[in-house]
Design brief:
- With 186 residues, this protein is α+β, with helices and mostly antiparallel strands.
- The protein has a single domain (4-185), classed as Alpha-Beta Complex (hypothetical protein yedk fold), CATH 3.90.1680.10.
- Helices cover 15% and strands 39% of the residues.
- The chain has 4 helices and 15 strands.
- The strands form 3 sheets. Strands 2-1-9-10-15 form a 5-stranded antiparallel beta sheet, with no helix packed on it.
- A hairpin with a 4-residue loop joins strand 11 (122-128) and strand 12.
- The two termini are 19 Å apart.
Length: 186
């Protein structure tokens, strides 16, 4: 599961700054629409959308509202995407990437900051709907993370993320296979 993540915009995160620069051409990034730092469900988040010609940059609201309830769905299990009516039709043309610099997970009452050891900026697989809302796709936890939680976001580097945007392939929705940095967070 992924309930919060983080975006850094300091100078060492050039890849994230480039993404936000593309988005700022159409949105007020950094002036109220997106506040870098810890990202919570229902926040507007930067996203890279699947497109016929080249990636399209956008801002999306994190979470699908569950009609008839007070609940918001923020994650989608990779194993059941093709079975769930809500997601099945989005797989064909509404795939996205959610750039991040880390995410948080809890084990009992301890909060952990987690990120790929080999990437400063990474991309979480997502789906979005016509209402401009997104969910993060999760998979089973990697060996590095299983002692904290049994789920984690599907994490891509830039190249694999581009493959996700080009076409749906369930074979790439797997736990991150490189080392993760895991630190206790305050």
């Amino acid at each position: 599961m992924c309930g919060r993540y983080i975006i850094f915009t300091s100078e060492e995160y050039k890849e994230m700054k480039a993404i936000l620069k593309e988005i700022s051409k159409h949105y007020k990034v950094g002036t109220g629409t997106l506040n870098p730092g810890e990202i919570f469900p229902s926040f507007e988040v930067p996203a890279i959308l699947s497109s016929d010609s080249r990636p399209d940059y956008s801002m999306l609201k994190w979470g699908f509202e569950m009609y008839g309830t007070n609940r918001t769905l923020i994650n989608a299990r990779s194993e059941t995407l093709e079975e769930k009516k809500m997601f099945k039709f989005l797989l064909e043309s509404k795939r996205c990437l959610l750039p991040a610099n880390g995410f948080f997970e809890w084990n009992e009452k301890q909060k952990y900051f987690i990120k790929p050891a080999d990437l400063q900026t990474f991309y979480m697989a997502g789906l979005y709907n016509s209402e401009g809302k997104t969910v993060i796709i999760t998979t089973s936890a990697s060996q590095d993370m299983v002692h904290i939680h049994d789920r984690m976001p599907v994490i891509f580097n830039k190249e694999t993320g581009c493959l996700w945007l080009e076409k749906y392939d369930s074979k790439i929705l797997v736990p991150y296979n490189n080392s993760l940095e895991i630190k206790k967070a305050v």
